Amino acid sequence: MSTKETLISNLKEKKASIAILGLGYVGLPLAVVFGEAGFHVTGVDPDERKVNSLNNCVSYIPDVKTEAVTRLVQSGHLTATTDFSVLKQMDAVSICVPTPLRQTGDPDMSFIISAMDELAKYMHKGMVVVLESTTYPGTTRELLLPKLGTDNGLTVGEDWFLAFSPERVDPGREDFTTLNTPKVVGGITESCSEVAAAWYAGAIQHIHAVSSAEAAEMSKLLENTFRMINIGLVNELAIMCERLGVDVWEVIDAAATKPFGFMKFTPGPGLGGHCIPIDPLYLSWKMKSFHYNARFIELASEINTNMPRYVVTRMLDAMNDRGQILKGSKVLVLGAAYKPDIDDVRESPSLDVIGLLQKKGAKVQYHDPYIPHIHHEYDGWHMDSVKDMMQAVKEADAVVIVTNHTVYDYKAIIDAAKFVFDSRNATGKLGKNSDKVVRL
Predict the structure, then answer these.
(1) I want to staple 22 with a disulfide (CB 3.0 to 4.6 A). Which of 95, 97, 326, 413 is the partner?
(2) Which residue, 160, 273, 295, is CA-closest to 229?
(3) What's the distance, CA 375 to chain centroid?
(4) What is the DSSP string of 252-295?
């Protein structure tokens, strides 16, 4: 049999050894799904705390149950290490490392490059490599292919196989997970696509193969650009409705009654998470090399980025209308996570809202049942979640709801608070009918 046929056979029979580079929000769920499908999976991560936690049968990600990790570790289907030399024994490698943006707005590829440099030392015949980290179109072919396929005498598509398959993790979601969310796969060659698709089909329910790595890379950026632009649209609509004296939430609910031609998006204090605020800017950055300005992306990014400042301005105006001043006032921020009921603060607008309130002279505290501590990397401040939320609500001059956690008792919060600014419509009809509440 050819190298491709042998590898596909081993993958289908679960004889192939699997490695996941990066054991974060993407890599660990993927490792668990592969392990539960019957593969022997080795997670590789330079963070000793993650490795020790997994080898001690403890999960550090809410979406992955400790019971699942325990079952897989004890059965020998999952192990973790900081030693990249195990890659020389692996048949299939998935790269699931972070791809943040630099402060200058250009892609930070350092995590991919670091993983790639380690992998390059141990490349061998009969290996399939799949990049899952979201990045700009062309990364797999332009960055990984030359590095992994140079000076080793191996031919891609014949001796080894390279593809891109975008992660689609949505933390906290239970209806669509790594297991049942359709997986897009695109290879450098047709054979690369076949091998990668055969591998992922052994664990994930639905595989959608596309013609190239670039098509797969672009599909991920389209998904998140679509959401970013539509969120930017409703954020601007919120600003317009406020000036017109119209309730934006009522307008959105009315539009959403149309059974076709409309998809409901809601405004808020800004974008957060590992995808939507960042991924479209990868595409915008890439297009600059073609002398093309991605105007929709740039405009939506500008609107969304300014929403924390808009929230603070609205708060300041609302307090002025009540005869209060923001400077020197006690402000309690409810929610630090970027979305409800998770412990993820990546790119959370709450950090910006807190920072802006502090710069206005407010005495800021926060509460989040999932996040006991927050730290702002660039401004250098650290804060602990208040122990007694309701006592902090009573003592605050103003409460601002940034994350609409479902565990909050919003009626009790309104009753106890002096003033509430609700940036998520978390208070709903209660807030609409209360003279204590101002909604975005």
Answers:
(1) 97
(2) 295
(3) 18
(4) HHHHTT-SSS-------S---SSSTTTHHHHHHHHHHTTT---H
Centre a 10 Å sphere on the Cβ of residue 8 and count the other Cβ atoms it contains: 21
The mean pLDDT of the chain is 94
For tokens 């292919």, name the residue. 145
Local structure of 185: helix, strand or coil:
strand
Question: Residue 313 has what pLDDT?
Answer: 96
Angstrom CA distances, 295 to 220, 252, 284, 292, 302, stand at: 19, 25, 8, 9, 11
Is residue 66 helix, strand or coil?
helix
3-state class of 306 per DSSP? coil
Question: Which DSSP string corresponds to 367-433?
Answer: E-TT-SEEE-TTT--EEE--S-HHHHHHH-SEEEE-S--TTS-HHHHHHH-S-EEESS-TTHHHHHT
Half-sphere exposure of 21 (CA within 13 A, CB side): 27
Angle at 39 between CA 126 and CA 21, to 5 degrees: 70
Q: For residue 227, give every residue at least 6 positions away whose Cβ sits within 8 Å of its Cβ, in sequence order, or none.
A: 265, 276
Q: Read off φ and ψ for residue 210, nearest 5 degrees.
A: -120, 170
Q: What distance in Å separates the CA atoms of residue 85 and residue 403, rounded to the nearest whole number?
A: 42
Helix (H, G, I), strand (E, B) or coil at 6: helix
Q: What residue ranges define each of the domains in the chain, with the CATH number in brackets? A: 3-211 (3.40.50.720), 228-439 (3.40.50.720)
CA distance 319 to 56: 51
Q: H or E segment at 162? A: strand 160-164
Told to judge if 275 belongs to the known catalytic residues of this protein, a careful annotator would answer yes
Sheet holding 437-439, edge to edge: 363-367, 330-334, 398-401, 420-422, 437-439
Predicted pLDDT of residue 9: 96
Residue pLDDT, tens place only, 109-147: 999 999 999 999 999 999 999 999 989 999 999 999 999
